[in-house]
Amino acid sequence: MYEIKKILITGCGGMLGHAVYELFSKEFDVLATDIDLNEPWLSYMDVRDYNSVKETVEDFRPDIIFHLAALTDLEFQEKNPEEAYRTNALGTENIVLLAKEHNITLLYISTAGIVDGKKDVYDDFDAPNPISAYGKSKFYGENFVKDHLERYFVLRAGWMMGGGRKDKKFVQKVIKQIKEGKTELNVVENVYGTPSYTHDFAKNMREIIKTKYYGIYNSVCGGGRVSRYDVALELIRLLGLEGKVKVNKVYSDFFASDFFAPRPRSEALVNKKLEMRGLNKMRDWKTCLAEYVERDFKEFKEN
Hints:
With 303 residues, this protein is α/β, with parallel strands linked by helices. It is built from eleven helices and 15 strands. The longest helix has 21 residues, at 81-101.
């Protein structure tokens, strides 16, 4: 088996990138890149610019590339689909073409957002059918990876959590509202998914790159499918705010003007292939949320 010593990471300035860098930089020679240099350990690379990628790849000569870079704002991409394809599709093409030219293994981060929501839960063998510009551009990236490379891993993430100050997702939004003094929260109950804890996700990456089990894998927490309402209730409990903060159950049309991009009714995944391979490091979402609160919101909890 090929030996991995050097890892190039794209889009490493976000919440998943922080967890990945924290884990892998302890063991490997890591070049972490992003277009937003928000950490001292980041170097500039724009995946949309082929020459930028080419220069970085040929200078660093990685053994594997972790391709995290992506646009994730669904509303922005629905209004600006060309930007979704510029980053998520063409950016991925650039990475894949150079990985192929230099015989580099690729690990591509995809999303549960590539399903259509007609099923309650999706395993790794169910056929994607994306309904948003974001989902379509990410699925295009998946297909380009598998059509052009032999040595690749695709990991599909769920509702990402675990980024602390870098978290721009649901958990941080709830925390922000509470910090602002909100004592009543309106949270959607009729849309379902599965959380992915960044630190467990990074550990799954660590396990799978040791193997030759190339292919596509779901990588989400255990505990079954949940709604945002379920996650909010558990978060309030963990923060010790039961009786102080009320969580109202609402439906997706309540936020239709703000969140207008089409979303699957259910984008819940199950890690069937990781389980079958004996590689699943993803714990129950409640366990992970408790660790997240203790790790990143301990001071808030104590206050």
